[in-house]
Specification:
Blueprint (H helix, E strand, L loop, with lengths): L6 E7 L6 E7 L10 H6 L3 E2 L7 E4 L6 E3 L6 E5 L6 E6 L8 E4 L42 E6 L6 E6 L5 E5 L2 H6 L2 E3 L6 E4 L5 E4 L6 E6 L5 E6 L9 E4 L12 E5 L13
Parallel strand pairs: 11-18
Antiparallel strand pairs: 1-2, 2-4, 3-8, 5-6, 6-7, 7-8, 9-10, 10-13, 11-12, 12-17, 14-15, 15-16, 16-17
Length: 270
Amino acid sequence: MSDSAPLVEYHGNCHCGAFKFTFKAREITQAKTCDCAICSKNGYIWGQPDGDSFTVVKGDENALVSYEFGKRALAHKFCSTCGSSVMVRWKIDSMGKAALINIRTVQNLDSTKLPLGDVFKGSTFGDAYQPPAAVPTGPVPDGSTVYHGSCHCGAVAYTLHSPEEITSATDCNCSICWRNAAVWAYPQTTQLTFRGVPDTVTEYAFSSHKAHHCFCKTCGVSVYTYFTDFERMEGKTALNLRTVNGFDLGSLDLKKGNGRELKPLYEVPA
């Protein structure tokens, strides 16, 4: 797109509405992604504000949880209440105050319809990501497939003994799942062994309060959801397959969940 193209003003917010912002940019016409570990686990889609047009209209950027790792060139920022990963800030002097915005948090932008642009190969920079140690469990039932996974920082980790290989999952477009980029499988809760739960997770529930979305307090990655008073999900935990070590999401039979249309419809909190 030409640099002379007009700027569009975008508005966004974390899910709970504690943090709201605006920025101007050339019209967003592609989904720009990165294959590094944190971007993959959070399913970021990136947009870059024009100049210093990023403006906070509610809340305080400094109140967002900031997660840094590796060479600490970037601060990944998420809401401590709902876990929405909103943005990153460069921390090196040559980049000034440059920011990238996770456009999954932008209002009235159907990023599901954006064509995928070139994937930035962030995985080739710095040291390769090392998953945390596997969570030990008891004997593995015969015929089971074992999966290990975690948030990015490793404070929350798990082992799953699945009676069969995971070949399908649900990609839900509801207001919270889309922001978290969650890709869900629904194993029996008894098949999961966690480390760091519940001490290192924050639970976020809204609307019916039947689904409790759990994300790491340190790095903000959405790991799992558990359910209360929800007969269809009794005895099950929703596991975000983005957090499974070495899992090939492209191999899945991905079912689209249209949670966006479920009543009551999500409205941006005042």
